[in-house]
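Would you mind writing out the residues of a protein together with its fold in token form for me to study?
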Amino acid sequence: MKLGLAGAGRIGAMHAAKLAALPGVDAVLVADTDAARAESVAARVGGRVRAVPRVDDLFTGDVDGLVIAAATDAHAVLAVRAARAGIPVLCEKPMATDVAGGCEVIAVDDEVDVPIRVGFQRRFDPGYVAGREALRSGRLGYLHTIRATTLDPAPPPAAYIAWSGGIFRDCGVHDFDAIRWVTGREVVEVYATGANRGAGFFAEAGDVDTAAALLTLDDGTLAVVSLGRYNGAGYDVRLELLGERDSVVVGLDDRVPLRSAEPGVAWPDGVPATGFPVRFAAAYRAELEAFAAVAAGKPADSVALCTPREALAAFLVAEACERSRAERRPVRLDEVG
């Protein structure tokens, strides 16, 4: 099969190498608004990866599926165009920059018989899968508390922050989707806040470099989400499921960037991940493999692949958190969509 890849930036380059390594993929056609960047990625990855001059060249009927890793404001446009052309889509999050754009993608997904999926790779991480299974099996009993953490070791560039949509939409949305997917519950209310102690470009963009949100789920479970851009110890992503009978933690291994203050305790003593490409390398590959199977027309869709409706649900939690931070009050989800 032949797959298209729209976007040759950091994530696009990472996807190009992983797509080319998938069994059954004969060619990966990569395009970018900067043709030279696409050519550079194709030359660097080599093998089955080939650059095409324009993004439009991915819509000629020559590809069996399209992975969208372009600039955020192009996601919805490209996803809709591909689906209407009969091309299965895997779109990196967010699928749109706003609620209206997300609703447009959902409308097209309902209208055409072509799969549109959204990239939330944590659904394919073995730890998140095991946490979900532990909860769904009843082993934990009911949950009383969830703690979700996403802490970057260093902030993205100022230019990225300016159009990222803010820490809740850009970063926290992964935690919001993971909480919904693992628990099977909906968020009904949020209370969020944030602070800036780092570079000035966060405040200039109306954003924060550190944030916290308290989510109330529809069964009364409380989820505390911590987000940050300055975790110098390393990339820290965890999900703690604290239950009536038992508790489990996703992301607690010797690479976790925490050190015990207790005398004589040396664990954990591994080398922390430097960022999401390292921490979730296997998850990204599994997600792309699942999408390739769907694009090839395999009868069983992966239950982990995120649908547009699920992606919008996570985005709405982020919207509510942003409103809560700005207005300094609890916000119910039915206020935003």
In short: The chain has a mean pLDDT of 96. The first helix runs from residue 10 to 20. The CA atoms of residues 121 and 284 lie 6 Å apart.
